[in-house]
Amino acid sequence: MPRISESKGRGDENSGYVRLFGNVDVGLLISRVQATVIRAGNELEKILEEKTSHSLKSTLDEALSNQIPLTPSQKVIVFRPSMPAKSGSPGVTGDILILDNSLKSVLVIEVKDGDTFDTKKASGELESMKKISGYVASITGYASSYYFCSFNQEDKEAIVTGAKGRFGIENAMTGRELCELLEIDYDQIREERNMLQSENLEYFLSELLQNTEIREIIEQMLQYEEEEIE
Asked: Which of 28, 120, 135, 144 has the fewest CB atoms within 10 Å, i.e. is most exposed?
């Protein structure tokens, strides 16, 4: 998990966050939190790739040109698979593609750290997955399918809801299911990513308390609570 302390965020003192709170320091801090959340999503894809066995990984070109001999029990995992551009149609790139020779299947997977998606972006990603899976299926003759994986969500209905119904439950995948396909340990990854949670919380609170206005508000609230208890 990335550190808030290492995220820059947006430096604009007229940002939406600043206007929301009416406090520059708080607005800039929340912007850094948002930047950290985005970094966490990018970091997740790197972690998955690093954890996956080198023997399973390949490029799409190598897999499709048979430079890697596939056995009936072998799968090939491609990170950031790209479909070449065609006349009048730009190339597209996905997150993960799994070519399973034993099952004669092609799986294209979009990985998300959260479970609430930008609907416009999700629609574009959905189209990209359809194009890539169809492209590989046309070359291999394998059955194709595509999935949105919400890594930290165990409820597939929640994944579909988070995408505003852009796809059905048959196209939803949990992080645990993805890790099974990649042959890596889901629980270990979750545990490792959570190690910096306490540090991030302490840093966030420390930054808030450095602001005189915020400190005074908190002190007043605590004093009021103490008086209520008495």
From this structure: 120
* Residue 78: strand, helix, or coil: strand
Give 89's DSSP letter. Answer: B
In angstroms and rounded to an integer, the radius of gyration of the C-alpha atoms of the chain is 22
List the one residue out of 20, 18, 1 whose CA is nearest residue 9.
Answer: 18
pTM passes above 0.85: no
11 by Cβ neighbours in 10 Å (0-12 / 13-18 / 19+) ranks as exposed
Q: What are phi and psi of 77, to 5 degrees?
A: -115, 125
H-helix segments, 52-105: 60-64
> Which carries the bigger pLDDT value, residue 132 or residue 69?
132
pLDDT of 71 above 70: no
- Which tokens hold the place of 226? 């103490």
Q: For 90-137, write each residue's pLDDT tens digit.
A: 778 889 999 998 889 999 999 998 877 766 677 788 888 888 988 899
Neighbours of 171 (CB within 10 A): 19
Place of tokens 């929301």: 20
3-state class of 120 per DSSP? helix
Cβ atoms of residues 37 and 109 within 8 Å: no
